[in-house]
From TrEMBL:
InterPro entries: EmrE-like, Mg_trans_NIPA. It is a multi-pass membrane protein. The keyword Nucleotide-binding does not apply. Signal peptide: none annotated. It comes from the Bacteria. It is found in: Membrane. Its main location: membrane. It holds the Pfam family Mg_trans_NIPA. The keyword Transmembrane applies. It comes from Brevibacterium picturae. This is Magnesium transporter NIPA. The chain crosses the membrane at residues 66-92, 104-124, 136-156, 163-183, 195-214, 226-246, 252-274. Keywords: Membrane, Transmembrane, Transmembrane helix.
Amino acid sequence: MTIVAIALAVLAAVALAYGALYQHDAVAGQGDSHNGLSWAHFKELLSNSKWLIGLGITGLGTVGNVVALALAPVMVVQPIGAFSLIVSVLLGIRHRGLKVNRRLVQAVVWCTVGVTIFVALSATTARTEVHLGSDAMPLVWITAVVVFIGLSIMLFFRHAPQLVLITAAGLLFACVATNTHLVSVQLLRAGLDQVTWLNVIGLVAATAIGSWFVQNAYAAGPPEMVIAGLTVVDPIGAVILGSIVLGEAATAPAWFLVIITATGLVACLGVVVLSRYHPDVKDREHQRRVARRTDQLTDTEES
């Protein structure tokens, strides 16, 4: 079953990359979307065929990932999403004319290698357990806290930087993945009457808010950044929740935890590098500087 789960997770990763390409093009094509998505923008997207195609592809990938989470531990399935970063960069080169520089290659390598080691180690150590009743409540409370933080960012930081948006989205989807795994195992091994519905509510709320962050992140910068955040922050968060809250790494030796921490830091460093040196990010920063200088010259001439 683990082999099937890994195969489904790989297909889901490819779907995520294609879905991101279509949805980013649709969101970025809106006039002032860089200032953040409003409800008016969102209503327009609902009639945008490119955005809907991206939504459908992402939906298929999500279904594949959900099935994979039902067949294998979170620590095995979720890190495989890092493969979508490579696919996303290749799609960017082909369809968006993305310029490849040394820093971009380094960032992709660090993210991919870091998370790949996650998968290799997790597959040999992780184990799945059924958490029923009160045993499932710690995850409910953690999800509630993350959802509350996400809502606070939505309400009070409308123009948050893309790195903040993707980090928040990654943490929310880590909660989604962990709750999905917990509920799926409850359903398959204990029956529908043993499903903890608070976990279901939590994963639905985290999905809705996380999706909002993803769309705003598309408006705030390149899709490769969104994919990098989701495929690094999400699996690292899911691995932490799976190992600590669900006890998937209860039998893991100390050296395992040390290597997991080190590879996680390497992957996170890759995201930070990507956020600073991605060609599209650098072009946007250059445009902002030119606009700022123009405004200063105009103000000087008027005075």
